[in-house]
Amino acid sequence: MITHVKRAFKYRFYPTDAQAAELSRTFGCVRKVYNMALTVRTEAWTLRQEHVGYNATSAMLTAWKKTEELAYLNEVSSVPLQQALRHLQTAFTNFFAKRARYPRFKAKKKSRKSAEYTTSAFRFRDGKLTLAKMTQPLDIVWSRPLPEGAKPSTVTVSQDAAGRWFVSLLCQDPGVKPLLANGNAIGVDAGLEHLLTLSTGEKIANPRHERRDRARLARAARELSRKAKGDGSKAKGDGSNRAKARRKVARIHARIADRRRDALHKLTTRLVRENQVVVIEDLTVRNLLKNGHLARAISDAAWSQFRNMVEYKAQWYGREVIVVDRWFPSSKLCSVCGTLADKMPLNVRTWTCECGTTHDRDVNAAKNILAAGLAVSACGAGVRPQRSSPDGAVGAEAGSPTARAVGIPLVYEGEEVNVDAPPPSRRHEPG
Ligand SMILES: [Zn+2]
Are 137 and 202 found together in one domain? Predict the structure, then answer.
């Protein structure tokens, strides 16, 4: 059996002035429609306990376009506007399933600028991509090839805070097939000093230059906050210095994120290929992010990205990810004799158990995570196992790990570049 997966292939592109203007207008309309629909749905619910679904908002969009003040919505392709309403529907579904917070308004400066086009709104021919309302194809930098014969089903255009333009093409990837099962298992501990520590004792360092970039980021952020506080910025029309400072922060952020994503892709592909079972800890990122430290925030973002990648790659290749409850005392437990230490402050990097074993804090934690995960895997229950799927749904049923990952059509929303070298199994005939 073949796993049918959809993968997003993301590339930079350079729009013409007219294309940039068209896309900026589209982003604005997407935001407007999303926010209006959110207002309507929120009011209907809070005032009248009425549920307004996607179809109702879609009908409203048609009506809005007929009014004089919203007639400008007709100037852009209607597809991204419809997609915005679908995304809002998904956000509500996730909220009602307790997987996400209540949907928030898209702010002009802070929200991600993006527009999604489905097949009726773009043309992909001879390697050229032309969007609705445009005459010229996009000038895409094909930094890596699309799979042979791939036909994108969805195209997402976005612009990051540093002003760079990206296009992401969602395609069926026939190259992804489950790997042959092996008996290896590994535990992974998330850390601050190192990005990750493995139960084998291997420590994965933070990406190169990250320390220096973080220092730069901190400096730029301080600069920006000084500019923001500076009086008279209103009089000077939001001061171009401030905008410049904001762009600088965004650029450094983007650089850190790019390097980290590359490093995580290499790492997660390797872990999933080498191991049948990957055990991780359920760190609830939303809670951790409240901690204001910059280093912490970035590490936490890396962790959720890592988890996401490991989970979908495990699905692709027929591997299993086991998530161990976050209250499991992985740092305080001796992995050799099982003695539980009283406390383990964060600054303790090595400790000696009363059994005489000296532990590296993180390696010991990774070993404990692995053992807890394998216990769960063996008896099918235990430390509240969460075998999670990428959309956040939790399916606790045990079953053949390889069989579970097969034949599931997967779409990963908001997926970033995830193109790696072709898996070894590509050499096998489809069976
Ligand atoms: Zn011990």
Answer: no
Q: Tell me, yes or no, whether 418 lies in a domain.
A: no
Q: Of all residues in the chain, what percent carry a pLDDT higher than 90?
A: 42
Cα 422 from Cα 147, distance rounded (Å): 10
Q: Are residues 11 and 141 in the same domain?
A: yes
Beta-strand pair 165-173/154-159: antiparallel
Six token digits for residue 404: 């579970």
Q: Which amino acid is at 55?
A: N
Distance CA 12, CA 142 (A): 8
Q: Which domain holds residue 255?
A: 185-207+251-404
Q: Residue 395: pLDDT above 70?
A: no
Assess if residue 272 is contained within a domain.
Answer: yes
Phi, psi (degrees; rounded to nearest 5) at 15: -75, 155
161 and 192 share one domain: no
Do residues 167 and 189 share a domain?
A: no
Q: Which residues are catalytic?
A: 189, 281, 362
Q: How far apart are CA 41 and CA 121, in angstroms?
A: 27
| Alpha carbon of 339 to ligand 1 centroid (Å) | 5
| 269 and 381 within one domain | yes
Query: Which amino acid does the sequence have at 136?
Result: Q
Q: Tally the domains of the chain.
A: 2
- The position carrying tokens 């050229």 is 128
Residue 235: inside a domain: no
**End-to-end Cα, the chain, rounded Å:** 6
Give pLDDT tens digits for 94-152: 888 887 889 999 998 778 899 999 999 999 998 899 999 999 999 999 988 887 778 89
Expressed in angstroms and rounded, the spacing between residue 355 Cα and the centre of ligand 1 is 4
Say how many C-beta atoms besides its own lie within 10 A of residue 425's C-beta.
16
Which DSSP symbol is given to 425?
G
Q: Give the chain's mean pLDDT.
A: 79
- Cα 376 to ligand 1 centre (Å): 22
Residues 351-365: b if buried by 16+ CB within 10 A, e if exposed: bebeeeeebebbbbb
Nearest to 1 by CA among 419, 390, 398, 425: 425
Q: Report the alpha-carbon distance of residue 37 to residue 43 in Å, rounded.
A: 10
Q: Flag whether the pTM goes above 0.70.
A: no
